[in-house]
Amino acid sequence: MRESAWFPGHMAKARDAISRTRSVADFFLVVLDARIPHASRKFDLSRLAPLHKCIFCLNRSDLACEDTTDDWLRWFSSQGLVAEKTRAVAGQGLSRLRRLLASRKEEILEKRSAKGRKDRTFSVIVVGMPNVGKSSLLNSLGGVGSAATGRKPGITRGPQWIRTKQGFSILDTPGILTPGRLELDDIWKLHACGILPDEKADPVETASLLWDPANRRASGSSVPDQAGQGDLEGLGKALGFLKRGGSVDIERTAQHFLKEFRAGKLGRLTLEAPEDDL
Ligand SMILES: Nc1nc2c(ncn2[C@@H]2O[C@H](COP(=O)(O)OP(=O)(O)OP(=O)(O)O)[C@@H](O)[C@H]2O)c(=O)[nH]1
Ligand SMILES: [Mg+2]
Predict the structure, then answer these.
(1) Class of domain 3-179
(2) Top mutation candidate among 7, 65, 89, 176 for ligand 1, by most atoms within 8 Å of CB
């Protein structure tokens, strides 16, 4: 696959804008999908943001297995990285992140005033792959005016500074993908989580991998039992997704299964854990 086919112009512009503004950023909020904290980190982050200035947000944590998210938080901490679980869309689960940002702001302003600088601006850049909830997070953090959000990747087209009531200046940026860094095992996970658009992956392949319980970790008993359906084909039959002639419409079944997963209807599922062979 050609890189240009994967990497639309607005992503290239986003990378440029982040590179230009990175020197003024006091902090970077790196938004990851809590269901795939490893795969959703595979963009050229280290070129864009110094790791000591990053706060990793495991967003959409309401869709992820709770215990595995806690394992991931411990893993980030063991790597000397700061991470929080977040749930941007309902505006809940952000109190720890708010407190963290407020304390970082105080530290930075104190350091500045010790150097005789009066500048009170605290600038944060939000970065991450497409559709992980960057704009939603910014809105939930109290952006005055709001950033556009949506279910498909590629909603934010250009970088946009937004001021919050707490006095932060936050730069919302379009999602970034770096196809060259992705392995096959990342591609299906990114596709399942709605980060890679449907045109870039095979829904039947993604749905088949997602179907395999070995590829998922679940919270408690929240997962509906698929045993009675056997496989994707069985699901298609049970749903009555048949083509003319009576064979199962496997493509339609796969799309349906992916839609259910993305909406959290299969329960709280995480697709990779820190101890997996990543
Ligand atoms: N369940 C759940 N959905 C979320 C959460 N945060 C964001 N979303 C949803 O995820 C989708 C993408 O959100 P956006 O904020 O537009 O994501 P983005 O990263 O700004 O996307 P681009 O601008 O396209 O790169 C929207 O449908 C949101 O409602 C969350 O914590 N939980
Ligand atoms: Mg956006």
Answers:
(1) alpha beta
(2) 89
Report the C-alpha gap between 232 and 278 in whole angstroms.
Answer: 26
Domain 182-270 indexed as CATH 2.120.10.30: no
**Does this model's pTM top 0.85?**
yes
Q: What is the pLDDT of residue 157?
A: 76
Residue whose Cα lies nearest atom 16 of ligand 1: it is: 149
Per-residue pLDDT tens over the stretch 49-79: 999 999 999 999 999 999 999 999 999 999 9
pLDDT bracket for residue 264 (50, 70, 90): very high
Residue for token digits 């963009």? 43
Indicate the domain borders of the chain: 3-179, 182-270
pLDDT in tens, 141-176: 876 556 778 888 877 777 788 888 778 889 888 899
Residue 134 Cβ inside 6 Å of ligand 1? The answer reads yes
CA of 129 relative to ligand 1 center, distance in Å: 11
Residue 51 to residue 49: CA distance in whole angstroms: 6
Q: Closest Cα to residue 187, out of 174, 202, 173?
A: 202
Instruction: Indicate whether residue 131 lines ligand 1 (CB < 6 A).
Output: yes
Residue 12 has what DSSP assignment?
H
